């Protein structure tokens, strides 16, 4: 109810700010309901999308990220507004702005190197027409494993880089390497014996695995 009132076009800025400040304080204290209300797109002030450009631009300085995120979903903003949104302190605002056509490649690379990808939001930023996919294999050197995972989005990732990922401590990286189309039968053999079942399952499901090895797996399982 507080979100609905705060997002109404009839409420004063002062009332809006007080209501949202209360929710943001509750979110900081761990309230799931407040986090959902502030972060889920279904609770965004969507009315702002149809407002005239001059009105929307007044929200560049809004202290609440949800309004700046709706602004960033527009496609008709001037260059200065995009520069500010690309440097917004809230990563969700920067991600939304980055989905526009013509996003500078360096903006996309910088965002992904800093925060990785959100895989449940389609299309992925690595699939953006302006993203320089030649940079993907360089993500293998990133210290953050969530960012390192993006190297696997390169279908031609060289075997030496895949081998490095199979040696990672994180199981999700080893599982990603096990399902990669460029992985070798030799690496798959190692991954079939992985200590984490999801890694072994990914290796067993990879069509790169020789047919004879697949038959052996089925026979050993009594299938």
From TrEMBL:
InterPro entries recorded: ARM-like, ARM-type_fold
Source superkingdom: Bacteria
UniProt name for this protein: LRV domain-containing protein
Source organism: Streptomyces populi
């Amino acid at each position: 109810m507080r979100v609905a009132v705060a997002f109404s076009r009839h409420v004063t800025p002062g009332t809006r700010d007080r209501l949202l400040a209360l929710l943001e304080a509750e979110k900081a204290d761990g309230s799931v309901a407040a986090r959902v209300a502030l972060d889920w797109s279904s609770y965004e002030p969507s009315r702002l999308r149809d407002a005239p450009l001059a009105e929307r631009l007044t929200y560049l300085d809004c202290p609440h990220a949800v309004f700046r995120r709706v602004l960033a979903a527009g496609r008709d903003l001037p260059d200065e507004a995009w520069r500010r949104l690309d440097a917004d302190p809230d990563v969700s605002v920067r991600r939304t702005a980055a989905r526009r056509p013509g996003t500078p490649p360096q903006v996309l690379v910088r965002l992904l190197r800093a925060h990785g990808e959100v895989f449940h939001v389609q299309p992925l930023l690595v699939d953006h027409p302006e993203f320089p996919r030649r940079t993907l294999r360089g993500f293998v050197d990133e210290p953050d494993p969530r960012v390192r995972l993006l190297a696997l989005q390169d279908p031609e990732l060289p075997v030496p880089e895949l081998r490095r990922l199979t040696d990672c401590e994180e199981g999700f990286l080893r599982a990603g390497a096990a399902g990669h189309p460029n992985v070798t039968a030799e690496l798959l053999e190692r991954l079939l014996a992985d200590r984490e079942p999801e890694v072994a399952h990914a290796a067993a499901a990879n069509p790169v695995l020789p047919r004879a090895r697949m038959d052996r797996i089925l026979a050993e399982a009594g299938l």
